[in-house]
Design a protein that fits this description.
alpha/beta; five-stranded parallel β-sheet; about 500 residues
């Protein structure tokens, strides 16, 4: 058994999770890695999404890596383009460009018994001792099957594939879909539209927050000159974000207070009882991904805007027919219909031990161990995999934590202690049983249909606080793994 082997690693994805993984590996002394990205640039969701009004709903000073502080954000909540530039700057600053391959979508990844063979869309084949999927959840756009949509004579655009040359001024626009994307794009397009119709299958609770509040340049300069203070601010915000985990995972006065604020936001901004009634959801606030906005209620009250709650019967060449008999004349349809959030690394052909496919392994829905390991797939890890805290804990923190967890195995491989490592079915089943029980009192389990739910009706989220997550991913427990050394399976 050779000692001090340098593990060959392939990372799939160059978004937040992929960049966090690459930098964490590099800082830990692992340099033989390649990042494969299907897009033409880094950034993940911030590369693919460029729609008008795109803004992060997490405060800027928290939405950053611990190893790459940025004190000079333009606002309290950063626009998407600024976040994408930040991620690009991190890649440049950390010297990752030489290990990054763009326009290289992974078509297949097959475990050969001792290593992984990866084939990309540009015709290349790579070998890796470890394969890390950092594909995230918001990268497969979902287009609903709407009768007649292909007959529409105007423009149709999905918010995740926005055409930068698309003219929206002076047009009659229909925005289909709610959630943060629908709310943001309606707010951005309404002032310049001839008329805008927001077609909403079910309304969302919308909490008012100063999304357009800028950050004074002097604050950025002040924090730039005091990096220790800036780091303290980041730590305080990270600690403070734990309140969100508490609110969402445990019934308490904090949850009731936030829910009361959501109802107050609607009541005070929508004076019309009829419109307020149609904007009032039939589920608890926070059950879905919470929408934050400072402008939507104002936009939907405007004379050139309307809320449409009737279902779509069909799309015609010049508009949309509704089930209530109305027809809406439009020349631009915007699909704010979200993503196939539970596909993760698919549709790549992923095969693990004994030819097990990921589709067979996940026949009953996505399932993993502590967000990062899947039984039947040796030397394969996910960052922001199943049950990730997309609704409660910083994804930057979660990604860095998971990547550090993976480096424990890389270090043991390099030292000759392991050849292959695979999480056991027993440990995975135990973890998933515990998660199912812990999800019971969470707000996501109070009765709503959200993108947090899998096709099987399970909540695909992290039901614990950040302290618990940190403890679970501090270092691997050998008892939960099949560890192979000096031989094949």
């Amino acid at each position: 058994m050779p000692m001090n082997r340098e593990p060959r690693v392939v990372i799939i994805g160059a978004g937040v999770a992929g960049i966090a993984t690459a930098v964490t590996l590099q800082h830990a002394g692992f340099n033989d890695f390649t990042i494969l990205e299907k897009g033409s640039d880094v950034g993940g969701v911030w590369h693919w999404n460029r729609y008008p009004g795109l803004t992060c709903d997490v405060p800027s000073q928290l939405y950053q890596f611990s190893f790459a502080p940025k004190p000079d954000w333009s606002g309290l909540f950063a626009p998407g383009a600024e976040i994408q530039r930040y991620l690009h700057d991190v890649v440049d600053r950390e010297g990752l460009a030489g290990r990054l391959r763009l326009n290289a979508e992974v078509q297949s990844a097959v475990f050969t018994g001792s290593s992984w063979c990866i084939t990309t869309s540009d015709g290349h084949e790579l070998k890796a001792d470890f394969l890390i999927s950092a594909t995230g959840v918001l990268h497969h756009p979902f287009t609903p099957d709407i009768r007649g949509l292909d007959s529409f004579a105007g423009d149709v655009v999905h918010t995740a594939r926005w055409d930068d040359d698309l003219v929206t001024e002076g047009r009659r626009i229909a925005v289909i879909g709610t959630g943060s994307t629908g709310v943001q794009v309606v707010s951005a397009l309404q002032p310049g539209a001839a008329y805008i119709s927001h077609l909403v299958r079910s309304p969302q609770w919308i909490i008012w927050a100063p999304m357009d509040l800028g950050q004074a340049a002097a604050i950025g300069r002040f924090l730039q000159q005091r990096p220790r203070l800036h780091r303290k601010l980041y730590d305080v915000l990270l600690w403070g974000s734990g309140i969100l985990a508490d609110i969402t995972t445990r019934p308490s006065w904090r949850r009731r207070l936030v829910q009361a604020y959501a109802r107050w936001s609607l009541r005070t901004q929508i004076r019309s009882p009829e419109l307020r009634d149609r904007l009032t959801p039939d589920y608890q606030p926070l059950c879905k991904r919470q929408v934050i906005s400072s402008s939507y209620y104002r936009a939907i009250r405007a004379k050139n805007a309307e809320l449409v709650t009737a279902a779509i019967q069909r799309v015609t060449p010049d508009g949309i027919q509704l089930t209530d008999g109305r027809s809406i004349d439009v020349d631009l349809v915007v699909l704010a219909t979200g993503f196939r959030t539970h596909n993760y690394m698919r549709p790549m052909r992923l095969r693990g031990r004994d030819g097990l496919s990921i589709d067979d392994a996940w026949a009953k829905g996505p399932r993993g161990y502590r967000m990062t390991a899947i039984p039947g797939f040796p030397n394969f890890f996910t960052v922001l995999g199943p049950n990730s805290p997309t609704g409660s804990i910083s994804l930057h923190y979660s990604s860095e934590l998971t990547a550090r967890y993976i480096t424990h195995w890389l270090r043991r491989f390099r030292n000759g202690e392991v050849d292959t490592v695979e999480v056991t079915e027993e440990a995975t089943a135990r973890f998933n049983d515990d998660v199912a029980a812990a999800l019971g009192p969470t707000v996501w389990n109070t009765g709503c249909n959200s993108w947090y739910l899998t096709d099987e009706g399970n909540v695909d989220l992290w039901p614990y606080d950040r302290k618990t997550m940190t403890a679970m991913l501090s270092r691997p427990d050998d008892r939960d793994y099949h560890i192979q050394k000096g031989g094949g399976w």
